[in-house]
Amino acid sequence: MIDRTLALLRQRPDLAELAAFPFDFDINRAYHGEDVHLASGASLEPVAGDDTGGTYFVCADGAVLYASSEGEAGLIGESVTEALEIIIGGGGLHRMEIGPCLDEKQLLAEIREEEDEMRASYAPDLDARRAALLDGLGLPRRSPVELAFRLDAVARRTDPDHVLLNSMELMAYQYLDERARVPLPDAALAPGRADLQRMRNGGPAAWEDAGSDPARRAGVLRAAQFDRRAHDLPLLRHLLEREAAGRTGHFRERRLAAVLVGLHGHAEDLPLVRAACDHLPPSSASELAEWARQEDAADFGQDPAAEDEFTWIALARRQGRTEFVRAVLIRMLDDTGPKAERLAALSRELELIGDHAQAARAHHNFASLQGTAWDRAAACSKLAELHRLAGDLPSARRALERVRSAIGLDAPAARPQDRQLALDLGSAAEGPAPDTSAAEWHRRGLGRRITEQHLELVLAAIEAGRPELAEETMAHGKVLLKTIAKESRRSLSELSSRAKWAVAALRTGRSGVDPAQSSK
């Protein structure tokens, strides 16, 4: 549904002209300088632009996202109507760098200075034009202070559902206003803190509601870790009983619950704490409290900022907050330099939420940091898988080329015995010793993984209508199948049969069901 104010601008050229000058909301500039999309995948429509190259987009929920030509973006209104109220009445408020500590007097002074410059430079009749546009659009007069509060509130909603990405590089636009950045621990803990407060205020029903769900329970325990109160002991016992009974794989929360209970130092809690812990704590009340203090100091503590960032990401992912996790991971990836361990962790987390394109972006950088042929082959094999799952088959093909280069399969000395001869000859030459780390790739699990990725790409290429890619990749796959160990070849027999059958059917124009599938 088109916003009433936007529809009016499109119907009234006189109002559209006023919006374009001097308020720089030009519906004839409804385009952006580069391809962009929202990380969430939600729809995005450019509806206006300004003379700096910035663009106003309407999102699926009606909110207005402003993207500058300098790579910054953020929400500036819950609707086009609200955004225009801020643009018209705020004197360029949405593009001003307003400090977080400005009081009302300072804010008004900033806006007055901006508007005085507009009057002096190009719009001496600014006030008359503002009045005419507000009246024409039927918009109320609001104070700049009220508009600033509205802008601040909506800007904080930019993440996670309105993160703008460059479609080619997949990097996020920076915050239009840094005040919109919510610290990761605070954002991750918010649901748990709300549940903890409900449990404190409510009765058994509230305890059961949050305590029976493992993911919500984890959030409550993390919230209680940083907000400790003496009267929470019965509540903590309830959570520990649930953790001990569930025995999920998330042992850190179970141990945290045991520590939080143990810190109170009650002898009657010893059996419960022991039931929850794999390593038995001490056997007296005083020793229990001391054990809990040591565990707390070593592994937990009361400073959310001291926790690893991936702790908060894992918690939010368990709670099903996919878009929140996606936004955090993309911004973390954008800020990550050549740090292999961190890139690998980011790639794994992005893969877990199903964002294979971003996972491939992280893994591409990870693969470029690998120093040995074995590590490059393994990393690029995984990279090929991520590209394929993201639907980027040309990039998957290039990743497999890097794999074959790393193991020497595209070199003239392709056979294992020829490669070994080349290595032996090279060892007598001057210079660094040759990299022999991948010499036995075909005898190990790496050979199976590499071959599997080639066969999977064959099938994906056929499904995508890329016969030339399927044929080329199958040729390499056949060489790999002849080279890898018998056990690996046997484990891939069904997949290789499907790939061979599909390529044969492609050549002959046959259609139907793969015999390997029809026999199931």
Characteristic terms for this protein:
520 residues; 25 helices; mainly alpha; flat; two-stranded antiparallel sheet; 59% helix; five-stranded mixed β-sheet; 7 strands; single chain
Provide structural commentary:
- The protein has 520 residues and is mainly alpha-helical.
- It is built from 25 helices and 7 strands.
- It has helices at 4-11, 13-20, 80-89, 104-121, 126-137, 144-155, 184-201, 204-211, 214-225, 233-246, 251-262, 270-276, 285-299, 309-318, 322-334, 340-352, 356-367, 373-389, 393-407, 416-427, 445-463, 467-483, 486-491, 493-508, 515-518, and strands at residues 36-38, 44-49, 55-59, 64-67, 72-77, 164-166, 174-175.
- The strands form 2 sheets. Strands 2-3-4-5-7 form a 5-stranded mixed beta sheet. It has a two-stranded antiparallel sheet with strand order 1-6.
- The radius of gyration is 30 Å and the shape is flat.
- The chain starts with a helix and ends with a helix.
- Mean pLDDT is 90; it is low at 425-429.
Q: What is the helix tally?
A: 25
Sketch the major β-sheet: 5 strands, mixed
Helix content: 55-70%
Briefly note the structural class of the backbone. Answer: mainly alpha
Radius of gyration: 30 Å
Number of strand segments: 7
Shape: flat
Mean pLDDT: 90
Low-confidence stretches: 425-429
Measure the end-to-end span.
49 Å
Share of β-strand residues: 5-15%
Strand order of the largest sheet: 2-3-4-5-7
